[in-house]
Design a protein that fits this description.
The complex is a heterodimer of chains A (about 280) and B (about 120). Chain A has three domains: about 30 residues, no CATH class; about 160 residues, Orthogonal Bundle (Cytochrome Bc1 Complex, Chain D, domain 2), CATH 1.10.760; about 70 residues, no CATH class. With about 280 residues, chain A is mostly helical. In chain A, strand 5 and strand 6 form a beta hairpin. A three-stranded mixed β-sheet of chain A has the order 6-5-7. Chain A contains eleven helices and seven strands. The longest helix of chain B has 23 residues. Chain B has about 120 residues and is mainly alpha-helical. Chain B folds into two domains: about 30 residues; about 90 residues, Cytochrome c-like domain (Cytochrome Bc1 Complex, Chain D, domain 2, Orthogonal Bundle), CATH 1.10.760.10. Chain B is globular, with a radius of gyration of 15 Å. The termini of chain B are far apart. Chain B is built from five helices and no strands. The chains are: A mainly alpha (about 280), B mainly alpha (about 120).
Chain lengths: ~280, ~120
C-alpha cells in the first residue's frame, strides 16, 4: 500500500506538477514513467493486456466480457460504417478520395498539423472530408460517426499507437502540455482530476465500479457500452467523466478535448489498436 | 480555467461572507452552533446525490460499498476532536492535498446543516 502511495506521489509529481515549469519533463520521460507505473502496480498483467481496460485487472467481469465479445455488439456498426465508406457523396466522390490509404488509417491519428497549428483527430478529419465534399458534418458523440469510426478502427486493428510530437514545432509540445495539465487539473463541484480516479485509484472500487487503469485508455474506441446501449466516441466518454464530477463538459472535438486526446494517446504509444470495443 | 477559478473564488467568498454573518448573529458562537441530527445525517450520507459516502467508504447497512477511502468505523476513537472530523468532511485536501475525497463543505456539496447532520452520524459510528 505504501509503495503504491509513493509511486502515485512520484507520478503526480513528475507528470502532474512539472508542467508548472520548474523541471519540465520531456514527453518521452512522462511516457516511460506512466507505462512503468501501471506495470508495477499490476505486475501480473502483461503490458499488451492493458488494452482491455478494466477486464485486464478483474478476472470476474472478464469472463462475461469474453462471452460478449463472441457476438460483438458493435458488429452492426462496423458493417454500417463499411457501407458509408463505400457510398459516394452527392458529388460522386467517396471517403477514399480524402483518405487514399484508407480504410486502415486509424494509427495515424491523432496527429499534430503544423500548418494549422492544431491536433487533428480521426473524427475531425472525417467531418472535414464530408464538408469539403458538400456533405453536412456528423454529430461527434454517437450515431453515424461511431459507425464509420468502428469500420476504420476495425480495419486498423493491430496497428500500434504511435503519436508523434514533432520537435521542430514548440506549439506541438504546448498542445501536449495543455492536454497533460487538463488530465491532472481538478474540476467540478466534486473536485476530481482524471488522475484522481484513473492514476490514483485504478483497481479500487468506486461503489461497485472497479476503476480502470489509464494505460490502454484510448486503444479500443469507439466503444459499445452496455450502460449507453449503443456505441459512443472517446470524446463522449471524456464528456461523461467530466459530468460525473459535476463539471461542465467541454465541447466534443474542441481544442481542450483534442489536446487531452493527444496527451492521453501519446501515453499509450506502443500498444496495439483494438477498436471497436465493448465495456460495461 | 481562469473562469473556473474566479467562480470558485466567488463561491468561497460568498461562503466566507455567510460565515461572518453567522458569526455576527447575536448569541451565536462556536460553542452553541447548531448541532446535527444523526438520523437525518445517515440519510444524507447514504443519498447518492448528497453525501454518497458509500461510493468510497465501507459503512453500516450499505451493500457493495466502494473502497477508495478507509472504512468509517470507530470514528470517536480515531477522531477524539470532533472539529478535526468536521474539517476532514469540510475539505479533505487540507490534510492531504492529493485526496480524492470531495470537499463537501468548501464546495457547497452539502449545506451547513446537512454537514452537521452527517458529522453527527459519522461521529456515532
Amino acid at each position: 500500500m505504501n509503495k503504491i502511495i509513493m509511486l502515485t506521489a512520484a507520478l503526480v509529481m513528475v507528470l502532474g506538477l512539472t508542467w508548472g515549469g520548474v523541471a519540465l519533463a520531456t514527453p518521452q520521460a512522462d511516457q516511460a514513467i506512466w507505462q512503468s507505473y501501471y506495470q508495477k502496480r499490476f505486475p501480473n498483467v502483461p503490458k499488451e493486456d492493458f488494452i482491455n481496460g478494466v477486464y485486464a485487472i478483474d478476472p470476474v467481469s472478464r469472463e462475461s466480457w469474453e462471452a460478449i465479445e463472441e457476438f460483438p455488439p458493435y458488429e452492426m456498426a462496423i458493417s454500417q460504417g463499411e457501407k458509408m465508406w463505400n457510398t459516394p457523396f452527392a458529388n460522386g466522390k467517396t471517403y477514399r478520395d480524402c483518405f487514399p490509404n484508407g480504410p486502415a488509417i486509424a494509427g495515424k491519428y491523432p496527429y499534430w498539423d503544423k500548418e494549422r497549428g492544431m491536433v487533428v483527430t480521426l473524427p475531425l478529419a472525417i467531418n472535414e472530408c464530408r464538408e469539403a465534399n458538400g456533405e453536412g458534418p456528423l454529430k461527434y458523440k454517437k450515431g453515424p460517426i461511431a459507425d464509420i469510426l468502428s469500420y476504420l478502427r476495425y480495419q486498423s486493428r493491430g496497428q500500434l499507437t504511435k503519436v508523434e510530437i514533432p520537435e521542430d514545432d514548440p506549439k506541438a509540445l504546448e498542445a501536449y502540455e495543455k492536454g497533460k495539465q487538463f488530465y491532472f487539473a481538478r474540476r467540478g463541484q466534486l473536485n476530481f482530476s482524471c488522475a484522481n480516479c484513473h492514476v490514483q485509484n485504478p483497481g479500487n472500487l468506486l461503489r461497485s465500479d472497479i476503476l480502470s487503469p489509464a494505460l490502454g485508455h484510448t486503444t479500443h474506441f469507439p466503444v459499445y457500452r452496455s450502460k449507453w446501449g449503443e456505441i459512443g466516441t472517446l470524446h463522449r466518454r471524456f464528456s461523461g467523466c467530466n459530468k460525473q464530477v459535476r463539471a461542465k463538459p467541454f465541447k466534443v472535438q474542441g481544442e481542450e478535448y483534442r489536446n487531452l486526446e493527444y496527451f492521453l494517446t501519446y501515453m499509450q504509444n506502443g500498444l496495439p489498436l483494438n477498436g471497436p470495443g465493448a465495456r460495461k | 480555467m481562469i473562469a473556473l477559478k474566479t467562480t470558485l473564488a466567488g463561491a468561497v467568498g460568498t461562503a466566507l461572507i455567510a460565515a461572518c454573518v453567522l458569526a455576527l448573529a447575536p448569541g451565536l458562537n462556536a460553542a452553541d452552533a447548531p448541532t446535527g441530527n444523526p438520523e437525518a445525517g445517515k440519510e444524507i450520507a447514504n443519498d447518492r446525490k448528497l453525501g454518497n459516502c458509500m461510493a468510497c467508504h465501507v459503512m453500516p447497512d450499505i451493500e457493495s460499498p466502494g473502497n477508495i477511502g478507509p472504512p468509517l468505523i470507530g470514528m470517536q476513537a480515531r477522531y477524539p476532536d470532533k472539529e478535526k472530523l468536521r474539517a476532514q468532511i469540510w475539505d479533505a485536501t487540507v490534510a492531504n492535498p492529493d485526496s480524492s475525497m470531495p470537499p463537501f463543505g468548501k464546495h457547497g456539496i452539502l449545506t451547513e446543516q446537512q454537514l452537521n447532520d452527517v458529522l453527527e452520524y459519522i461521529w456515532s459510528l
